[in-house]
Design brief:
By secondary structure, the chain is an alpha/beta fold. The strands form five sheets. Strands 1-2-3-4-5-7-9-10-11-13-15-16-18-20-21-22 form a 16-stranded mixed sheet, with no helix packed on it. It has a two-stranded parallel ribbon with strand order 6-8. Strands 12-14 form a two-stranded parallel ribbon. The longest helix has 41 residues. The N terminus is likely disordered.
Length: 516
């Protein structure tokens, strides 16, 4: 027998043994390699951290789940030909550098594929051929910088696509054209500089979009075209401008995260379109105030986060007036926020959680808080001045079985109580000595002013009387005014007051009685 005949015979033998193995495996279960845990009831195989550098091919061909995470696999070429019944495949945390073409063609029933934490740099046009049933695809934590225009063309039933932690700079419209049923898209931690409106417009059923930690600088008018969107995250970008019509088409949005951006003033007009919003996060931005009616159209808002805003100094007392359903309010780590208006929380009767930790508050009145609904209250790490205005807080700290924990709250002033927890003080320990000093000073000033005023009045009266007496002494003994006419020799004196003398003059001459 020549060499060609022997080779043909060898191939026949291999095929025969493979056929025999498949037959036996389907009847009695397959070989389970060392380092794997196999469950024939599902059936499934878990070969995690088994130091494998290739995909094992002698497992049960009827496998539904295959977990090969944390191994040393570098290639998947023709590795899954025999596993056509798979529904879950985990290849995360390996060394795979390429997906090749058509390597998943036999996996027509596969629903979940995890390829995170590998060395992938691009996704080719036929990388996912055959995965018509796939619903969840995770490509995160790779080095993908390019998506072929037909990369996802066979994934018409895909619901979740994770592209986070890659090196994408642009998303092309053609790459997402087939993903009409996609519900969740995560493109966090890439290098996008703008929102890719043209690519997003094909995702007509998208409900959650995560673009966090990119390099996006603005949210332009109608840049988010997905009308069914319910959750949007743009956290940790460089957004400084938000168009008034930025959210015009996403009026069903329920959750919006704009934390850690460069927003210098609250986008009041833009937020006005979000009538269904129940959670809003604006922490770590650059605005200095929260104006009146800042959330006037957000009547459904339940959770509001405004923490870590280094420039925030003032919150208008009517800022939350139109948020009757607000239940969770986070204002923590606003170091320049030293004052809260007494009426600030008067319009949030359902508030359950209030976080004021690490602000600049020196005092807080008891009547400022909605105690009928409040269950969680945090005022730790504030520069509190422990005097009579905080007696209510000391009493709360010493009340057993309270649902509001304030045992870690400490005083900054006066010096005698610096660093002392409120739980170690009694309400009677707190006195407002500084207020007593102020009151005493005010009393002294008032009394001094009264005495000075009285002294001025006495002096004025004395000077007036002194002048009057001098005038009276300057008159003649006859009490006749020096301007009496020559032909008038007598005068009738009329006394009108004790201190004043008035004179009247008569034109008649006196006639002796003997001449009458």
């Amino acid at each position: 027998m020549d060499g060609l005949g022997r080779a043909a015979l060898g191939h026949v033998a291999v095929v025969w043994w493979l056929g025999l193995w498949l037959c036996l495996a389907s009847r009695a279960g397959a070989f389970c390699p060392s380092g794997c845990a196999c469950d024939e009831a599902i059936p499934s195989a878990r070969c995690i951290q088994s130091h494998m550098d290739t995909v094992p091919i002698l497992l049960n061909p009827n496998l539904r789940e295959l977990h090969l995470a944390h191994n040393l696999i570098t290639s998947i070429a023709q590795a899954f030909v025999f596993y056509s019944h798979l529904k879950q495949l985990d290849l995360s945390h390996n060394l795979i550098h390429s997906l090749g073409s058509g390597n998943f063609e036999a996996q027509t029933h596969l629903e979940e594929l995890r390829l995170s934490y590998n060395n992938l740099t691009e996704i080719g046009s036929r990388s996912f051929d055959g995965l018509e049933s796939l619903r969840h695809l995770d490509l995160s934590h790779n080095s993908v910088s390019k998506l072929d225009s037909a990369a996802f063309s066979d994934l018409g039933n895909l619901r979740v696509l994770v592209l986070a932690h890659n090196e994408l700079t642009v998303l092309y419209e053609r790459s997402f054209r087939a993903l009409g049923k996609l519900n969740v898209l995560n493109v966090c931690d890439n290098r996008l500089r703008e929102i890719q409106t043209s690519a997003l417009k094909n995702l007509v059923e998208l409900e959650a979009l995560d673009l966090c930690r990119n390099k996006i600088t603005e949210i332009a008018e109608n840049s988010i075209p997905n009308e069914h969107l319910k959750s949007l995250s743009l956290e940790s970008n460089a957004i400084s401008r938000v168009s008034e019509l930025a959210f015009y088409r996403v009026h069903r949005l329920q959750k919006l995260n704009l934390n850690k951006n460069l927003i210098s003033s609250l986008p009041v007009e833009a937020l006005g379109s979000l009538i269904s919003l129940d959670s809003l996060s604006l922490s770590s931005n650059n605005f200095s105030e929260v104006p009146e009616g800042a959330f006037r159209h957000l009547s459904q808002l339940v959770n509001l986060e405004l923490s870590g805003c280094r420039n925030l100094q003032y919150i208008h007392p009517g800022a939350f007036r139109h948020c009757p359903n607000l239940q969770v309010l986070t204002l923590s780590h606003n170091s320049r926020l030293a004052f809260l208006h007494g009426a600030l929380l008067a319009h949030v009767p359902r508030l359950r959680q209030l976080n004021l930790r690490s602000c600049g508050l020196r005092t807080l009145r008891e009547d400022q808080l909605p105690w009928t609904s409040l269950t969680t209250f945090d005022i730790r790490d504030n520069p509190l001045v422990c005097n009579c205005s905080l007696q209510w807080l000391v009493q709360l700290a010493n009340t057993p079985n309270t649902s509001i924990a304030v045992e870690d709250v400490t005083c900054v002033a006066p010096q005698a109580y610096r660093g002392v927890p409120l739980s170690r003080l009694a309400p009677s320990d707190l006195a407002c000595l500084e207020y007593l000093h102020v009151a005493a000073g005010v009393i002294v000033i008032v009394v001094t002013l009264i005495l000075l005023f009285t002294l001025v009045i006495v002096i004025c009266r004395y000077r007036h009387r002194y002048k009057s007496d001098n005038l009276c002494r300057s008159w003649s003994d006859k009490n006749i005014a020096p301007w009496l006419p020559d032909d008038l020799t007598a005068a009738n004196k009329h006394i009108m007051a004790n201190e004043y003398i008035y004179h009247t003059y008569s034109s008649f001459r006196k006639v002796p009685v003997t001449e009458v």
